[in-house]
Each structure stands twice: as C-alpha cells, then as structure tokens.
Write a structure and sequence with these properties.
- The protein is of the alpha+beta class and 191 residues long.
- It has 4 helices and 9 strands.
- Strands 1-2-3-9-4-7 form a 6-stranded antiparallel beta sheet, with no helix packed on it. The chain has a 3-stranded antiparallel beta sheet with strand order 6-5-8, with no helix packed on it.
- The two termini are 28 Å apart.
C-alpha cells in the first residue's frame, strides 16, 4: 500500500463501525467484492465517483475519508502548509493515481462542500473512462493545462480558466499536452 493511500483503511473502519459487511457495501455501491477488497487493502485507488458512492452508502460526507476533524470555527489554510495529499484514480481503471488531492478545509466539521488543491499527473494513456456522481464541481486552473471530457464535449482550460458543472453528467478531468497541472477544485456531494 502506498503511504498516501489511507482511504482504504478508513473505509474499512467506517464500514465495520456501521456493521456493514464488505459484500453488502460492494453490492450497494455497485462494485464487485474483489474490487471492494482491493480498495480497502489500499491496492486500488478509488475514483472520486467511487468514493462518493461509498460515502453515500455509509452515510458520511466525502471529506470523512480525508480527515478526522471536528473544528466548528473558520479554517485558514496558509500557503505552503497544504495537508498531506491523498491519491485517487482518475477513472474506473485501476492502474494508479492521476490525481493527488490536498484538502483545504480538513479541520472544518459539518461542511457541505470540499475544497481541494489537486495535482494532476501527466497522462500516461490516451484512454479515458468517464464517470458520474451526484453533486457539482467547480475547477479553477492554477498552472498547466487540463482537458475535461463532459458528456460528449471536450473543454480545454489553461491557467486562470475555470469551469462549473453538474457531476451527474459523465466526465473526466486530466492533464493536457502530456504535462502535469494544478487546480483548485470545490466539490459538492450531497449525502
């Protein structure tokens, strides 16, 4: 298991605390048992869409997998003090992480949306698998160039560009032109 992939063990802990079997969780999320085992063991990085499904089934907010905080007041994130990143697969493929999420409000409990700095690695493949989940996303490009497949459209964004979309439409975010990129993303996922 890679050091930054602590999502799997958190899913296991939450699942066991709610007395849900791995088989039940897999079935309710629409996953195979084998896939759920790989996610919980940290062998496979779940996509954001997969993680949102798990959060809904377990009745927790998305940020629960990235933090354990209970701070009620404002949370300030200072430049250079980003939280440790968590890797996620960029799609349903299981070959590795394309996105590393750095939560910006991990200490804030009861939040309704998740702000992240996201490092997007250079694409290793030209094949993309679209995914969808409930909610909305706002993305602002901080550096580099990204391509967003959204439904049947392609959007190219460069530094300073932004996009806001409904996550229920099939989509995929990846670095463009074979170079890494950095984005600010705000994700709203109801539970």
């Amino acid at each position: 298991m890679k050091e930054y992939n602590q999502v799997g063990p958190k899913i296991t802990t939450l699942r066991q605390g709610k007395k849900v079997t791995m088989e039940e969780l897999a079935e309710r999320c629409g996953f195979t048992k084998a896939m759920m085992e790989r996610i919980e063991k940290g062998e496979t990085l779940p996509s954001l869409g997969h993680l949102i499904k798990v959060a809904r089934v377990l009745g927790v907010r998305l940020g629960t997998f990235l933090d354990d905080a209970d701070h009620l007041g404002p949370v300030v994130s200072r430049k250079g003090n980003a939280q440790q990143g968590s890797g996620f697969a960029t799609s349903n493929n299981e070959t590795g992480s394309g996105l590393t999420f750095h939560p910006l409000a991990g200490e804030k409990s009861g939040r309704h949306f998740e702000p992240f700095l996201i490092d997007i690695s250079a694409s290793r493949s030209s094949v993309t698998h679209l995914s969808a989940h409930e909610g909305e996303e706002f993305i602002f490009v901080l550096s580099g160039e990204i391509e967003i497949a959204y439904g049947k459209e392609l959007y190219y964004l460069t530094e300073g560009d932004s996009i806001y979309y409904d996550s229920i439409v099939d989509h995929h975010v990846h670095a463009a032109n074979g170079e890494p990129a950095k984005i600010l993303a705000v994700v709203y996922a109801p539970f």
